[in-house]
């Protein structure tokens, strides 16, 4: 089983960007943990990150072509602004689980609305890296599929 972990804008700065909000782990450390969590369940996890909305859209369509069984997606700030990402998620047959490191519902008002949530299989927020683990395990167990 193939799982894609896809991270959006500013997530490459994990570990140094607002560590009180996002934690101290770097993106490389998070990616390594995701690969390990997938391996525990016999899943092949690939990780990608882009600050570019178009590149994220291209990666979502490629996931379908690559036989990915599920996408764990932290769209970062695009979560609240991107109709284009929402439309791409709706257009593919690959299930997507929305993940956020912080509890977006307890933060600024503009972060409380997700444009992508209605077209995702589910959403996990506020659990830090454990949210990624939960999403990977859900796909590996067939829960989010």
Walk me through what this model shows.
Helix content is 36%, strand content 18%. By secondary structure, the protein is of the alpha/beta class. The chain has one domain (2-140): Rossmann fold. Strand 3, helix 4 (83-91) and strand 4 (96-100) form a beta-alpha-beta unit. The radius of gyration is 14 Å and the shape is globular. The N and C termini lie close together (11 Å).
Brief characterization of the structure:
With 145 residues, this protein is α/β, with parallel strands linked by helices. Helix content is 36%, strand content 18%.
Which architecture does the CATH hierarchy give at level 2?
3-Layer(aba) Sandwich
Radius of gyration: 14 Å
Shape: globular
CATH class: Alpha Beta
The CATH topology name reads Rossmann fold
Spatial strand arrangement across the major sheet: 2-1-3-4-5
Pick out the low-confidence regions.
none
- Share of β-strand residues: 15-25%
Keywords summarizing the entry:
145 residues; alpha/beta; Rossmann fold; 5-stranded parallel beta sheet; 5 helices; 5 strands; 18% strand; globular
Write the layout of secondary structure elements.
Elements: E1 2-7, H1 19-22, H2 27-40, E2 44-49, H3 53-65, E3 70-74, H4 83-91, E4 96-100, E5 122-125, H5 129-140
Parallel strand pairs: 1-2, 1-3, 3-4, 4-5
Helix pairs in contact: 2-5, 3-4
């Amino acid at each position: 089983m193939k799982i894609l972990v896809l991270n959006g804008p500013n997530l490459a700065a994990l570990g140094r960007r607002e560590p009180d909000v996002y934690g101290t782990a770097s993106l490389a450390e998070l990616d390594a943990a995701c690969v390990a969590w997938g391996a525990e369940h016999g899943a092949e996890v690939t990780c990608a990150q882009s600050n570019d909305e178009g590149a994220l859209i291209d990666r979502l369509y490629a996931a379908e072509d690559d036989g990915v069984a599920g996408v764990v997606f932290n769209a970062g700030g695009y979560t609240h602004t991107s109709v284009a990402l929402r439309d791409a998620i709706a257009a593919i047959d690959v299930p997507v689980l929305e993940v956020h490191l912080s509890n977006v519902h307890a933060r600024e008002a503009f972060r409380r609305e997700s444009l992508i949530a209605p077209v995702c299989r589910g959403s996990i927020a506020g659990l830090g890296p454990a949210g990624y683990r939960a999403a990977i395990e859900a796909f590996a167990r067939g829960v989010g599929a």
